[in-house]
Amino acid sequence: MANIKSQKKRIITSRKANAVNRANRSELRTTIKKANAALNAEGADKNAIVSDTFSAIDKAVRKGALKKNTANRRKAAIAKAANK
Description:
Blueprint: H1 5-40, H2 46-63, H3 68-83
Helix pairs in contact: 1-2, 2-3
């Protein structure tokens, strides 16, 4: 454990941020899994699914849970699945 007061404070805030980021990434992974399952199902409204998933990915980028290139790669994979 750190001895310096500011470092102790930094440890606490980084743990809080880590918990928030972990929750955001987990929520995003769940959304992507649900989207993939829905795209594989018959008679799904693909445009709505893709739109909702893209907005969730963009939200994760804004929150800092994902990098921009990672988000673009995931969006491309979802679009590819929707178009086949």
